[in-house]
């Protein structure tokens, strides 16, 4: 398994991995009309993937304002520490603090961030709805 910078040739494999995550976890809550566009928001500066034998196992992105976005690990690859490794790859590439938001529904993600030393600095309601149809409760974290 390797972690490397994502490139345009990874499009199909990234969308396939996202589909697996969405089917298992409803992340994102609703399947986007343009999944590659969802993985590549306008303010994205870089993205990394965990890949093994041509299969994308995980993904993470970084925005202009040092926010971690679109972090996920496929169900079959969980339990190997890939989310933490993806976060470490971003931290190694960026000087200074990073931040991220996570829905309160993401219990496993929250546990991973807190095990990795990320610190919750606040919470707010999102402008999108969670799986229960309510405005999602977002927890805001900063990197160690």
UniProtKB/TrEMBL annotation:
Keywords: Acyltransferase, Transferase
Domain N-acetyltransferase, residue spans: 1-143
Record InterPro entries: Acyl_CoA_acyltransferase, Bact_Acetyltransf, GNAT_dom
Top-level division of the source organism's lineage: Bacteria
PROSITE patterns: GNAT
GO molecular function, one term: acyltransferase activity, transferring groups other than amino-acyl groups
Pfam family, one: Acetyltransf_10
Listed name of the protein: Acetyltransferase (GNAT) family protein
Organism: Nonomuraea polychroma
